[in-house]
Amino acid sequence: MxxxxxxxxxxxxxxxxxxxxxxxxxxPEDVMxxxxxxxxxxxxxxxxxxxxxxxxxxxxLVSELSDIERVKKQKTDQFIQKLLKKMTLDDLLPYxxxxxxxxxxxxxxxxxxKWSRLQLLEAxxxxxxxxxxxxxxxxxxDDQVMDWIIYLILEHLPRPLYAMNNAGKTMFYNSHFEEIxxxxxGNDYDITAVEKSLGDPAKNDFYYNDSDEILFYNQELGLYxxxxxxxxxxxxxxxxxxxxxxxxxPVAALTSRKNLKKQSLEQRLESLEKIIIxxxxxxxxxxxxxxxxxxxxxxxxxxxxxxxxxxxxxKTTNRKKK
Length: 322
Known about the structure:
The protein is of the alpha+beta class. It contains 15 helices and eleven strands.
């Protein structure tokens, strides 16, 4: 009986194969392999944004690894940060004359590609008068932790999630959404096919219910979804697509774009106006002043048009009375 419960639990909660901030994922001694793979005496260490944080020398690493028991107790990022050196152009000359390119790693010891000697010299010149990027190292560590937290949350939410930027390009998606992609496009899917599908008006029907909530339905993926605006520093950066296989709203309460095709031009414009007003009110917390300003109409005009379409403004009125 207990085994059956465990199996059911596995179906609901997913196990994670790797944690990007797990100190066991990359040990300090594992960093040495980068030197052996390309036979280089130094490794540029860069930040998440690609800026040079400092130089890791093979000799320093070998010396530090002589006490392997002490090293094992350190996290890889702390170990690398401790050994980072600031090297001038003169310091780098003996290395760049013997090697044309260098493997690049981050503070977690992960390969980040290669740099030509010209790239290394230019990057070194930029930090010539700075300390080895302590603040940026801390920021990268915080960003890595945040990335893991976001990943953890997204994977444990039972709903398929997908995010796109303002240009309609993929930002991220969780494994539940990937399962849907594979069902529709196969294992060798191209994510651009999903971008095109979600960005094609002909494949995405929109609905609104009696509560003025906007829903969408993608015909190709067979999904109902909500579009939630993503913001950073009060600026729109894209949308979070929250998906569901079925709509919990009765069909009778939904009005779709298909119905618009049967209407006259005037009726279509009125239907679209209702959707726009409803969406804008929702974005601004049902605040009349902000909504009117966003729509570039007067408050009175907004109240009149909302009343015409049967859109409730009770929440705003109640706030004012309080």
